[in-house]
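[Automated response] Your request has been received and processed.

Submitted sequence:
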Amino acid sequence: MAEQPASVAVSTVIFGIQDHGGTAKVHLPLVRRVREPHLGRWALPGGPLRPDESLRDAARRNLADTTGLDAAHLEQLYTFGAVDRGAPDRVVSIVYWALVRTEVAATTRDDPNVAWFPVDALPPLAFDHEEIVGWAVRRLKNKLGYTQISHALLPEEFTLGQLREVHEAILGRRLDPANFRRRAEASGTLTPTGAHQAGARNRPPALYRSTVREELLT
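Generated structure:
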């Protein structure tokens, strides 16, 4: 009996910023498996690559099927193909990671089998998805050091305080507000809108827009 060729799947790690106990944290949506193997376990959004779609289109489909949203940023992460990772069948997964903006990160389709979790408090995951999430988190932290990737996690207009909170959420530590403001203002990647945050007491903070095009985030 001839051996079956390996299947090709595409999975997407989707990051967004949500409030968690009064603190901004990086979250991601997971899908509860409704069939074996790993019935009932949470897993990354993904599935077989369709014959008529590109890898990138498949990654965007995962995002849309899970959250109903489009990504502010999407790029390929890595290919995972250990022989036993999809037992009993051989599965090679091409993984993308995506960022969605803060104002939509809490939105998902009305599905009891889809939920957002903080990346530092994930439930047990199916297959090797914990390893995949670790790769994606490290990539996000690394890119924070040499790109303006944090802009893709923010609303179109944001305060410097909100930008700092995103950096703190990714790095997992507090940053000095004054030093961060100086670096942000000197980066040449922000432009003031002339407006201020609505509803703030005393002196409302100024709102900014990113001047970085999406293709320059990579």
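Summary generated for your ticket: Residues 7-144 form a domain with the Nucleoside Triphosphate Pyrophosphohydrolase fold (CATH 3.90.79.10). The first helix runs from residue 55 to 67.
If you did not submit this request, please reply to this message.
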